[in-house]
């Protein structure tokens, strides 16, 4: 009886220690993980300060009729102008190097790029990474166009990306 009590107590202690270590790992931030560019080691513009990551991805309601050809084309143009330098694109290597974590290749065929999750990430940035908030530079309509492009164009080839992203279009998802 006493042996079972001690065994149960040992398992509980191990579980508590593991949970504490997991909490510390998930909520730790390392200033050395920031990309440092420019003179004097100052963070580059759009370099986020480290913060604990949110427990769950933020999702927002997606406008009806989001992935119109016009919205996808406008999003492709915005992606080329604002995102390729960090994320790259088919046939275009990212220019920004040394970011930790490295920005993902957003156009890989296997990505989800759920617009309900992409929109708040672009609008508000991603804490603990170099992904900035674009809400001051891009109106919501443009951010929705980016979300439409990223969802629609997963797995896009270099020639198709070139054709789609070099022509600017007006994006007007319904309701926005």
TrEMBL record:
InterPro entries per record: Cyt_c-like_dom, Cyt_c-like_dom_sf, Cyt_C_IC, Cytochrome_c550/c551-like
Pfam short name (any one): Cytochrome_CBB3
Necessary cofactors: heme c
Swiss-Prot/TrEMBL keywords: Electron transport, Heme, Iron, Membrane, Metal-binding, Respiratory chain, Transmembrane, Transmembrane helix, Transport
Record carries keyword Heme: yes
Domain Cytochrome c: 70-154
Ranges annotated as spanning the membrane: 6-26
Domain of life: Bacteria
Name of the protein described by the UniProt record: Cytochrome c domain-containing protein
Organism annotation: Mesorhizobium escarrei
